[in-house]
Amino acid sequence: MAYLRNTWYVAAWDEEIKAGELFSRQLLSEQVVFYREQSGRVRALVDRCPHRFAPLSKGTLCGDVVRCPYHGLEFGGEGQCTRNPHGNGVIPKAAKVRAYPVVEKYSVIWIWMGDEDKADEALIPDFSCMDPEHFYVAKRYLHARANYVLESDNILDLSHIQYLHPGSLGSDGVSTAITRVEQQGDTVWSYRQTVAEILPDFLYQAWSIPADTRVDRWIDVRWDAPSNMLLLAGAVPTGVARTEGRETALPHLFTPETETTTHYWFSFPMPLAMGDMARQIAEDQVSGLAKPFTEEDLPMLEAQQLAMGGKEFWEMNPILLPSDAGAIRARRVLDTLIATEQTSAS
168, 169, 174, 141: which is closest to 251 by C-alpha? Predict the structure, then answer.
């Protein structure tokens, strides 16, 4: 499987990379070791010593360098070997590992696994709703045994919530929602608007609307390649202007671990200006969402992956429904970006 390389992927929540510890994670079928220098800066290296290929993550963090657990070679944040404890100490020219550009932004560690000279921080999508200076971010992580684009499809086509999440997120009015898709450059927006909908109790509580009130609900999803998504959801009593309602931002961030497994980060941010309530509300809401994500979405996506039997999506000749428009548009954009990148590299 070809991955888009010249783009930013989520590698971890910021809090996953702890001071004084080595952290290893497989991304795009490659094992990467992360650590923080004493200044707090995050570094990322190929998790494999070039001497006898021992995982560096099983070694020791010594200040700002990683010591290989097998023969003690030490590597700095730029990937260069800084110490050879053997013989006369001469460091072989080939004694280096690949270092990846990383950025800590929006409560997330971002990694660039393509051409280093193209790694522009300005290309990171806007997730300012997770800026830790202004928001408390309730964070969750799931590991899915399914391809990352199947995960993106799941969020871009939310017609499924009527059938997969009837007791928590869906209702009988979802499949008749007003939908449209827009593309702005390589960004895809999928819009879904219900009218006079009766919501599950969980959502009435989330938006502080009296139970059994008929509402107009919107779910707007922004997709940026390869699979970073922002869902904006809100509702108002039917007939009330949307501007009078409460909108919540729900980031969904996917990074391929392998061709058939995915890292999935999602969050519920709340403004710190709300004081102590921000943490309580955010944690309560993200815990409520984690239940259908874990118990309903995850098993379905993993079952899809098994049913595909290792075949590619388009190879399966899927039938297409009107509700697929956003997901298919995003797939087309991603396929084009990958093909263009491969052509440029050849």
Answer: 141
Tokens representing residue 129 in the block: 């709703």
Count Cβ atoms within 10 A of the Cβ of residue 27 and give its class: 0-12 exposed, 13-18 middle, 19 or more buried: buried
Please state the three-class secondary structure of 189-201 as a single string.
Answer: EEEEECCCECCCH
Where are the strands (E) in the chain, listed by range? Answer: 8-13, 23-27, 30-36, 42-46, 60-62, 65-67, 74-75, 81-83, 102-105, 108-112, 135-144, 178-184, 187-193, 215-224, 228-237, 246-258, 261-271
> Position of tokens 């909108």?
247
For tokens 């390869």, name the residue. Answer: 226
Q: What is the DSSP string of 87-117?
A: TT-PPPTT-B--B--EEEETTEEEEE-S-GG
Confidence (pLDDT) at 327: 96
Contact of 55 with 42, CB cutoff 8 Å: no
Closest CA to 109 of 232, 20, 23: 23
Q: Which tens digit of pLDDT belongs to each residue from 305-322?
A: 999 998 999 999 999 999
226-285 pLDDT, tens digit each:
999 999 999 999 989 988 888 999 999 999 999 999 999 999 999 999 998 999 999 999
CA angle centred on 224, ends 219 and 225, rounded to 5°: 140
Question: Contact at 8 Å (CB) between 55 and 24?
Answer: yes
Residue with tokens 């499924």: 160
